[in-house]
Amino acid sequence: MISNKVYLVGAGPGDPELLTLKAVKFIALADVIFYDYLVDERILTYAKTDAELISLGQPYTGRKIKQTEVNERMIAAAKSGQTVVRLKGGDPHIFGRLNEEMQSLLDASVPFEVVPGITSASAAAQVAGISLTDRRHASAVAFITGHLSYQHDPTLTPLDFGKFASFPGTLVFYMGVVTVKVWSAALLENGMNPQTPIVIIFNATFSNQKVVRTTLADAEQTVECEQLSSPCIVIVGETSVPLNSGK
User: Could you tell me the pTM of the whole model?
Assistant: First the structure.
């Protein structure tokens, strides 16, 4: 029996069928699971019946446990001899605060293993019927956080969204609907074509998923009119145009 170890597991975009076999293996082993509140709870059915399931916040209420507390609780559980799974939406390597959690475990001399998951960007593209790359239009992909972290931590350097206006490929914004006014204005001001296609995917792979198509010029208005809220993935670029299935 593996004990005193933390598994930092990617839960994928939502659909339980998109979990990796390794993710299912460690979820089933865990004595305690700390899971992000956006993780589809159907995934928790793979846990053993006596596992302790701890949500790190409540949906849409703004109540979230601080990162320092998450770290402390993981470490305490592991040091008590429990097998711990930290279940994170998507892929923990992509905007999942993975480095912060790994560093805390290293500092506490707690062994850990990272289990990658399907990132939300790939799942959102699949749901929208597009590809993130295309050898004619997009030989590169940029994953960009729309979350303005520097507003909460003045030691962080603000992200210059305008620099992405000339990026030779597809832009993928995580958590981008709240700050759509900021990044869309920056891209336009720095010369990106106002008619650049955009697709916004809400809750990709969940039963209530929604796909909305628009242009850069209309992005802010579309978010408002469609009443789009987090969690959304925003894909900007020529690959956002759906394939013509009739040809």
Answer: 0.89
